[in-house]
Structure formats: structure tokens, C-alpha cells
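Protein in question quoted for reference:
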Amino acid sequence: MVSPSRRSVLAGGTAVGSALVVGGAAAGPAHAVAPPAGGTASLGADAAGPREDVWRTVLDDADLVWRRAPATWYEGPFLGNGHLGSGIYAEPGANAVRFNIQHSEVQDHRPEFGSLFGLARLPIGHFTLEPVGTVTAVDWRLRLRDAELTGSLTTTAGTLHLRAFVHTSASVLVVEVTPSEGERGFRWVFHPAEAISPRAAFRPLPEGYEGNPPAVVEQHGDATAAVQTLLAGGQHTTAWRETTRGDRRTLHVSVAHSFPGTTARDRALKAVRGASAVPYDVLALPHRVWWQRFYRKSFLSVPDARLQRFYWIQLYKTASAARRDAPVMATCGPWLEPTPWPATWWNLNVQLEYWLIHGSNHLELDAVTRALSEFREQLSAEVAPAYRADSAGIPRTTDMRLRNGFHTPTGNGYGVGIPGQNPPTPEVGNLVWALHNVWLSYRHTMDESVLRDTLFPLLRKAVNYYLHFLTPGADGRLHLPATFSPEYGVDAPDCNYDLMLLRWGCRTLLDSARELGVDDPLAARWQEVLAKLVPYPVDADGYMIGAGVPFAKSHRHYSHLLAVYPLYEVTGRTAEERALIETSLDHWVSFEGALQGYTFTGAASMSALLGKGEDALTYLGELMRRFIQPNTMYKESGPVIETPLSAAQSLHDMVCQSWGGVIRVFPALPGVWRDVTVHDFRTQGAFLLSAVREAGVTRWVRLRSEAGAPCTVRHGIEGRVDVRDGRGQPLPYEDLGDGVVRIPLRKGESALITAHGDRPDLTVRPVAPIEPAPPWGLAPLSSSHASDRVQAHLGEIGLDVQSTGLRLWEARAWAATPRGLWSRPISCSVRE
């Protein structure tokens, strides 16, 4: 059992020394300047020194560093732009570095074999950087602020200095290598992958399914193309060209996909030729500018170095994996690896992947809203024919066009099951849950077009599907037949997953119709559902899976707890409700065995809802200790990326919550976090929040309204407060008690809240460390680690370090080199 009392506080600390100044009314330092038009915080100079850049400070501190060779996807650097991705690590069993080449649009198009085979994402291949000498040392840094890998490989023949990036707006990987004299003969080699679903390595092939034919490598003048023809039609092409400028050799790689046409070859070649005509630094300039502007949309600093660095890496990871116009993230993002899950998963993964874009102020990455709108007709095609006229749903897995490819012997297939029937598994609530993400995007921007054009019409159809199956019982309540709570493995009537989503859906439809001024004929039905829907099944252990199905085994998924989080339908308003949440949460995490990483992010966010910052930090500590890999990636029977991204949202939930029309500032900070800084954190109602906590006291809170929505805030400042506008003039406000105020703000106006009579410094700085922590990446192996690895290797043949008489330097050399990788053999004599 995971007990919140077993604190696992992460190490803290980060570099400090630069600042920004937030415009406001308080009498700040002499160097304070007002924010420019558009609201971006102005940078300020310390009175005793030159102007510095807070983002550069925290980003440089968060860089991932490798002092030894990464051997897997879970250890190495990763580059991407939402479409093209490259994971970088040692080539297994060879003296080479692998640069994977994968693309989020490259997939098969044979729906008759389902989403996991016939519509699966397809592997493309990889390049190997093959040096002349044997690699003896690695010194790499992934520079977050420029989204660029820099560093060197040292070999027995010399040194290879490299720089690499995936261009943010062009589908091109660029790798520049500057060799020393002895390494001038290094080479690049492309290895096309077999174009077969990665699931083929984990599950039996469907009858009649076969892999696509091998890629054909073609020479086109000074460029090369590997053209992969697909059995279903169409193609994808990897094109590359190497150029030399002085002593620098630069590889340019592009990938294009086309279906059903065959334009991919020409597009990839055109992209490579265009990119390779430009020097590295010229090509990198707009890329670097984009990334630096990206980070400046928000700022967060906590006194925990490991966690703060982790957070900024997740922002980098998200912008590397997501774009509004890119496919909704599949389980691996754009970095496809051997996996049983080569598709997009809609019963948790997608939702968790995109939550952090809201608070971090990065709605430009919202592919979910775009995809659900663009492919809405497919959502109706995924329910059974009898319901397609007025209903919609989304299956557990889809391709980038939201197709599941489920088929039956009669050919009349659909991906979303029918309540009360199985197969297919009646996992009905996925679309409603996905639309909760769309609702979050609406609430954080108050963009009425999102509500009118996407959320309301699609949610109406998703809820309609439920309405076909609701039936009154003898108790006068409306009941659902058996449906499936994701991953628990048992169908249940009155399943909490569906009841919770249905209740939220009806409430949201009524609110949306009111906001849009729509007199919907189904409004009375939605009100009836809210009035008569059966209560959520509960027993002595809290929320059940459904009627007659208790929560009784280890289960990683919180599908039975969605009303608590993320829907905030049950929030602990009364003592009884709070006790129910606590009982349910404790019972859920009490079963070890099947708990996984996102179990702990969900538990952290639920604890944050209850204001339990110590517990939230404990759960995040368990996540870091058990699951997060050296490069902050995550493994669960294969590579998946949703859990680290959702951990960033758990941190958001500790720092700010804005459900229920109230903005809560620093609602769940652990006691050790005496200092916290947040700037331009986006909240529901389209407010940008800046706030500073010093020595355990919230000094000031500033809110800027982008939409003129009602502004109600629990500010966390003790005693009387002053509320002033951007010119320093007092603002009228209503004190609602318990530290909550309501402030009338029009669009574009701001309010600064401080303790009465206080005039705090409005400079926003990274907070001071609690204690130092190592960077993410791979550190050199210590002597103890070396001995452990030697013992592990020798243990396979029944020997131990003492029995071999292995000297310490030999142990270090052996341990620093993965077996069969990047090393010359070392010898040791074994004592008789």
C-alpha cells in the first residue's frame, strides 16, 4: 500500500539570479517596467547588474546531460516537431550511435485488420553514425531553450563534435558533425525498417495480414531516397543529403507520407534539398526563435530542483510531440519504438497527454480539439448503424483520422460497443472524456467558437448515445446496462465511469446551451437525467466499479473516480463527501501489483484537490522513484509518454486550480515549499495568473482578464487585502469570506492583490533551492555502481567480484561499457 505518510520528498534546488518584473500597482523596485502590449512580462535589470533572462536561467539549469552512453529510448536524447521525431542512443551491439527516424503521419491504411495492425503507425528506420575509432566517452547536452543536442563523442581515433535539431516548422532532421583529423572517415548509414505493425512482435498476426514490401533505395543526384510502397496504396519516403562546409559535414533528413497518392518522394527530396542549401546556423535561427518564444508564454519555479527541471523538460517534450496541425499523440508520440500499442489511445492516454497545455498557456498545441472537429463524421461511423443519425463515439484505439477499423464477418463494423452487449467491449465514455479536454480548452480561452462549433454539437451526440440505453428502474432512477470501466476487466451495470461522464455531459450541455443562447429540444431530457440518474455505486471502500462490482483488485486506472478528478463533480464540499474521496483514494492505491505511473499522478492531483500538498508530493516522489526514466520518459510494457506529461499537470494542480468558477492560488503546497513563483499561468475564465510566495507567505497575486469573465479568486493572503488596477488605483471587490474575493474585471483589465498596506517587490525570480540535485540524463557511473554492474555481469556465469580478483579500474571500465557495446574486450584472470 502506498501511504501518504511515507514521504518521498524530492531533492530541491535550482540556479537563481535572474528576474522578470510583472506590471502592477505596487511600488516595486526602481527598475520595474510595465508589460508591453500583448501582456508578455517585461524583463527587468537588477539594480546592481545587467538585465538577465529568467527563462534562460531555468532552462539552462534544466538541460539534460549525458556523461555516458545512453543505451535505449528511455535513456537518450529526443528531438521532434510534432511530426518528425528522432530518439538517439547507442546502436545495440555495434560501435555506432543510432538516430531513429520516425514520423507521426506514417501509418498503414488497411482498416480490415483493425487499428493495431491495419491502421497502425509504421516504423521507418534509423541512421547510424559510425566512427572510425571505438567510442570511449560521451559528453552530450540537450539544450532545452534551443531544442538542440550538442556535444561530442571521443573515440580511439579522435573526436566527433556534433549539433543536431529537428526543425520546428520543416520536416527535417539536421545533424552537423565536426570531426578531428583521425575521425574524418566517419560515415552515416541508413537502415530501413520493415514496414509492419510494431504489434506484430507482441501479438499474433490477424489472418491474411502481411508486412509491406521492403523499401527501395534510390539515388537522385546528390540526394538519396528510401521509398516505402504500401500494399494499401500510397507511400512514405525518407530522403537525405550530406553537405560539407569547411571541416563540417551536415546530414539533412526528411520524411514525407502520402496516401493514396505517391507524392511523398518528391516532397521529401524537395525538403532535403531546400534545407541543405542553407548553412546550419542560418537554418537553425528561426527554429531557435520559435522555441524561445514558446517558453516565454509562462513561467513556473518551485524549490525542488529535480521536479522543476522535470517540469520544463515536459514542456519541451510536449512541444516536440504535439502541434495543433499534427496527429493527436499516439502512445509513443513521434518517437515510435517496438511497442504493442502503435496507435492513439482514447480511454486515458490522449486526455493525460494534453492536460498541461492549458495551465502552461500553450493552447497552440491543442490537436485534440482540431482532430475531433475535423473528423467528426468518423465519430458517428464508429457507433452501430442504428444510432449513427444522432449519436457519436470514439473507440479505445484509432489512427490519426480517428478510424478504428473494427470489422465483423459481415463487414458491418463499428468500434464503440453497445451497452449491455459484448463484443465489442462497451467502452462508451471515451468521447465524452475526450470532449472534457475540449471543454478545458474552451474554459481556458473562453473562445466561443470552440464551444459553438466543436464542443456543443459533438457532446450532444456523445450524450445522445447514452440516452438510447437509459432505462427507468423500480426505484424510479435511470439506469445504464452493463458497460466497461477502462481496464478493470469486468463489465458492470451502472458503471461509474459512464455515470460520472454522463452526469458531467448533461450538466455541460445545459450550461453550454445557456451560454450560446440555444433553446435545445433535448434540454428537458438532460435535466431529467441530472434529476433521476442513479447515484454512483458506493460501498464501504468508496466508489465501486459499478452496481454489484466492487473495486477489489489492483488497478492502475482511475476510471471509477473521474467525478473526483478530472471532472471535479465531487470535490469534498461536505465532510461526508470529503471522507468518501479519501476512502476511495486510499482503497484504490492500497492494492500493489498493477499500479503504474499514472496511478500516482492521479493520486497526486486528487490529493491536491483536497489541499493535501504533502500527500501530492509524496505521490509524485513515488512516481519519480519507481517509474520515471533517466531522460524523463516512461515505460509500461513498452514506451508510452502520457504519464510524465500528466505529472506536470499534477504540479499545476498543486500550484493553481480553477474549477467551479474559483481560481485557487497555491492550494496544495507542501510545507517544504516555502517559496514558489508562477507567471502567466492560464486559468479557467481566460485569466493569466502571476503570483509569488516567499517564506511560506503569499506576497502578491495578479490576474489579467482576456475575456471579461467573472473573476473570483481564493488568493491565500492572510488578513485584509488591497486590490488595485494596473495604474495603482483601488479596485472595488466583494469579500466572500474564507479568503475569497470577487473582482469585476473587463477584458484586458488586471487586478493586483496584496496584503493591506503591503507594497511588495513585483519582480518574478526563480526560487532558491532546498538542496542540489543531479541533472536529468546519465551521470558517470560511480565506483559502487561499477562494482554492482560487474557483479551482475559475472553473476550470470556464477562468479562474483571477489572471486575474480577484478581490480577497481577494471570494474569501472567494464561497468561503464554496456556488454557488446562501444568497447574493446577487457580481460581478467579468474582465481582458482
